[in-house]
Amino acid sequence: MIPELGHFALVVAFALAVAQAALSFTGAATGRRALMGTSRSIAVGQFLFVAAAFAALAYSFVTSDFSVANVVEHSNSKLPLRYRFAATWGSHEGSMLLWAFMLGAWTFAVSIFSRHLPERMLSRVLGVMGLVSAGFLLFILLTSDPFQRLIPAAEEGRDLNPLLQDPGMVVHPPMLYMGYVGFSVAFAFAITALLEGRLDAAWARWSRPWTTAAWSFLTIGIMMGSAWSYYVLGWGGWWFWDPVENASFMPWLAGTALIHSLAVTEKRGTFRSWTVLLAIVAFSLSLVGTFLVRSGVLTSVHAFATDPRRGIYILLFLVVVVGGSLGLFAWRAPRVGLGGGFEPVSRESMLLANNVLLIVALAAVLLGTLYPLFLDALNLGKISVGPPYFDAVFYPIMAPAVFLMAVGPVASWKRARLPDLWVRLRWALGVAVAAALVLPFVLGRWSALIAFSLWLGLWVVTATAAHVVQRLRTSPQPTLGGKLRAQSLSWYGMTFAHLGVAVFIFGVTIVKGYETERDLRMAPGDHTQVGGYDFEFVGTKQVPGPNYTAVQAEFDVRRVGSAAIVRRLYPQKRDYPVAQQTMTEAAIDTGFVRDLYVSLGEPVQGDAWGVRVYHKPFVDWIWGGCMMMALGGLLALSDRRYRLRRAAAVPKGALAQALTP
Amino acid sequence: MKALRYLIPLAVFAALVGFFAVGLTRDPHEVPSPFIGKPAPAFKLARLHEGDQTFGPEEMRGKVWLLNVWSSWCVSCRVEHPLLVEMSRDHLVPIVGLDYKDKREDGLQWLSRHGNPYLLSACDDEGKVGIDYGVYGVPETFVIDKQGIIRYKQIGPITPEALEKTILPLVKRLNG
Amino acid sequence: MRIALAALLTAFCALAFGQADEVAHPDPRVEKRLKDLGEELRCLVCQNQTIADSAAPLALDLRNEIRTMIKQGKTDDEIRAYLVHRYGDFVLYRPPLKPTTVLLWGGPFALLVAGFATVVVVVRRRRQVVPAPLPASDPSRASIAALLDSDAAPAQKKKKKR
Fold first, then answer.
1. Rounded to whole angstroms, how far apart are CA atoms A185 and A207?
2. Which three-class secondary structure state does DSSP give residue A144?
3. Do residues A474 and A542 both lie within one domain?
4. Which among A159, A410, B136, B155 could disulfide-bond with A579, CB atoms 3.0 to 4.6 Å apart, if both were Cys?
5. What is the pLDDT of residue A342?
6. Rounded to whole angstroms, how far apart are CA atoms A263 and C57?
7. Which H or E run includes A576?
8. Residue A569's domain spans which residues?
9. In a domain, A318, yes or no
10. Who's near C109: CB < 8 A, 6+ residues apart?
11. Are residues A500 and A541 in the same domain?
12. In the CATH scheme, what architecture does the domain B33-175 have?
């Protein structure tokens, strides 16, 4: 009964989404308040029905209803509860329903948090989101129904892929989808601006918190994916430039450019058509990513089971949504206007350069990801484009962007003077250069590349510090506490996020430059030394699990030269009988400045095992830096000025515009 | 006209869509053989049934033939095997088997159970000849012409469609 | 059938561990070269792993082949050529520079140049829109301009209500 109710709820949600779009647009076009007024309630209704459908599927999984085909394929009664729940989105159909659910949730959020928006605008925004929801729900109903029954019901399920039986599965996809789908809000705002032919600083102020929220969630989602593959896959890597990873990274790059472009549009009223285009591009990339992952067009370790029918539908959907919005852009953007001017050296010009660099980086990643497809489609052969290409191409593009990121906050709007900048930043530059030259020696070995990367990270830290000092110094408040309280959350967010980038750079540089590993055969009693630590393989024993049996090894870790055990590590080799898969569960000692990582391979003759032991210095700074970026975003969007009521909403930009001819 | 540059994003997107549409008809997993049009690499392997004798591709010069890579542990080989047996019964084209990474007893047993369509089978127990031919999955089939040049590679089991539309017409053409 | 194939693939496409266990007495120099080479080569069976990491039997065979070639004194280029001869460019994760990949390798650089040109053009155009600097003698305008240039949050809520 429940699955049928879920299916029915989807159909109702689809109908409501269509109504939401139709009534909102008609109301906005004709100015009829009655119609516009309904858009909010219908949006809420649509969300409730999608939520009901999602709940129905989740219920089927949690109760192990093996009459539902999806549950049979991806779950098992012995699966722990949290993974039975997470298995709801462990398949193509389920994850599409998660998409639709997120879309409904964001629509709901927009409808309740946007009372200060002009009615026409809110109507159109909800209308656009209704159209997108309708498209997704129709896709699910036509090609990816998660509620298909299996008659007669199976006795047991095939179990969730063991690789997915992990807390990461519970958090990573929802966070990622919150991000992807969240960009639909910025998209809706952009379309609305094009439809109305009008875009001002107020528009930027309204769409900014939504965009920053989506960006923060996407940052967390990508970060979790990387951390999860690090500790689950056992190869010690955390980014492979796999097509699906790139599919999530490209919207992130566009989103980063967008939040900065929105900052300019909000404060100075310029970059308008650029901002609108970025909003369209960011969401379009989310959709393109969906296409790439589910159509079978690219090989990827993440790819879902593919079906050309789904690929065709998503492609058509892309043509309508992306093609339509870019067409609208080509037609209406010239009307949106340019806005004020600025000098070659100014915060605007630096943000422009930063944006352009982010877009070039995005284009490079897109080029590398799609190039095998291009050549194959033109019958020019089959090639592979992997990490060597992306690493070679990405860092040189991003390096200047990172450099400018630290200078931007110090430069004034509209007109900055190079001599002023030099005076403000010369000490920061000197300290960064000196530290960058020395640190590699301290860490172990000197290399120009490592020194350069470290310099970039250090530069961000010192320049940001210089900016903070300057900011506090020029504050009229008498006490330090007062000065700190006077700064906006938006400013704290930016500073914290930028420092997060530096932390990320340190993590990547140091781990890539100084990690060590040993890949060898060890018998009980053997020792090996990695990274200044001694690892002793003590022995193994059998350990049962809920839906697996495991061989667990014990490794005693000591500092070289000391007898005291620093840590005991217990890597496992798990056998999942239902899925007929063997998985290795690495044991990691997480530390602030290093990870110690041991994973078991295959048993070799006697009681010896193949073993990989890693020492990874500063690797957790990679994800720590990403968390800082995300937190910075969340701080920024809690800024007071976004929480003002309708009556008070005159943005600062309006005054600047009034003064600028 | 200045407004034309606003059309650039749409133009780029249209090009992408074109590629995606074509991409839907392609299989990104398939690795085409670099040997098409090149001579079949030489080898000398022991035969499966007549263990004291050897086989090398030069023995098939002057004939158009198929080299079918198979194995007793290969699940998909069972799918195409009936088709091969039928082909050999109709004497359509000589088929030589390459028993890839298999133990002799297992290979012999498998053939006796499922039928032997092969003129003979060569034992590539170490898989080295497979590597020399760029084999990356089982089964795979090579169409080799009278001069010993590889003309076509079938990746995966031979389907009736591939047989009718590609392989048999090619064999006919090569036979002159 | 497809399910069986899929199961077979997932069984293979786990990670290869203790590669040294493939060899009775591993030579660290050979293993290091193998690792460096293998990490830029694509496994043809588990196409989303490197030959260094893949547990597929073919990857194991290829690793042993590469070890043999290293011991024979072959250079990295010769080893790559050996693999490309048999499997095509698909096996290289670092795409070779050829006429068909000129756009790939040159593209990002060309985009960078185009991006730089865009910035220059836009900045030049926007510069003309900048008005003459406010006369310093007008105190109220100057102080307002200074206030606007700073990013300080509004000190009191009252100031925002206009």
1. 8
2. coil
3. no
4. A159
5. 82
6. 54
7. strand A572-576
8. 516-618
9. no
10. none
11. no
12. 3-Layer(aba) Sandwich (3.40)
Contact A632, A654 (CB under 8 A): no
User: C94-121: buried (b, 16+ CB within 10 Å) or exposed (e) per residue?
Assistant: bbeeeebbeebbebbeebbeebeebbee
Instruction: Please give the structure tokens belonging to residue A487.
Output: 């700064």
Residue A562 domain-assigned (yes or no): yes
> For residues A641 and A205, is the Cβ–Cβ distance under 8 A?
yes
Task: Determine contact, residues A413/A347, Cβ cutoff 8 Å.
Answer: yes
Q: Which amino acid is at A607?
A: D
Residues A119 and A37 in one domain: yes
Pairing of strands B95-100, B120-124: parallel
Tell me: do A564 and A508 sit in the same domain: no
A496 vs A464: CA distance, rounded Å: 9
Q: What gap in Å lies between CA A656 and CA A573, rounded to an integer?
A: 64
- pLDDT tens digits, residue range A379-436? 999 999 999 999 999 999 999 999 999 999 998 888 888 888 888 899 999 999 999 9
Residue contact C95–A357, C-beta within 8 A = no
One domain for residues A504 and A540: no
3-class secondary structure, A137: helix
pLDDT higher than threshold 70 for residue A496 = yes
Chain B residues within an 8 Å CB radius of A280? 9
Residue for token pair 């399910």: C3
pLDDT at A652: 52
Q: Which two tokens stand for residue A370?
A: 């799609």
CA A422, CA B95: separation in Å to the nearest integer?
78
> Residue A62 in contact with residue A11, Cβ under 8 Å?
no
The answer to whether A359 contacts C115, with C-beta atoms less than 8 Å apart, is: yes
Residues A1 and A13 in one domain: yes
Alpha carbons A210 and A231: distance in angstroms, whole number: 32
Q: Looking at domain C7-91, what is its CATH homologous superfamily?
A: Cytochrome C biogenesis protein (1.10.8.640)
Contacts of B34 in chain A (CB under 8 A): none
Are A660 and C118 within 8 A, CB to CB? no
Q: What is the pLDDT of residue B154?
A: 94
Rg over alpha carbons for chain B, rounded to the nearest Å, is 21
Q: Collapsing DSSP states into helix, strand and coil, what is residue A299?
A: coil
Per-residue pLDDT tens for A272-294? 889 999 999 999 999 999 888 88
Q: Which of A235, A341, A641 lies nearest to residue C128, judging by beta carbons?
A: A341
Report the complex ipTM.
0.91
Query: What ranges do the domains of chain B cover?
Result: 33-175
Count of structural domains, chain A: 3
Lookup result for tokens 């704290």: A492
Binding-face residues of B in 82-101 toward C, CB within 8 A: 101
Each residue's pLDDT tens digit, A37-63: 888 899 999 999 999 999 999 999 999
CA distances from A592 to A567, A595, C33 (A): 15, 8, 32
Give the SS3 label for residue A541. strand
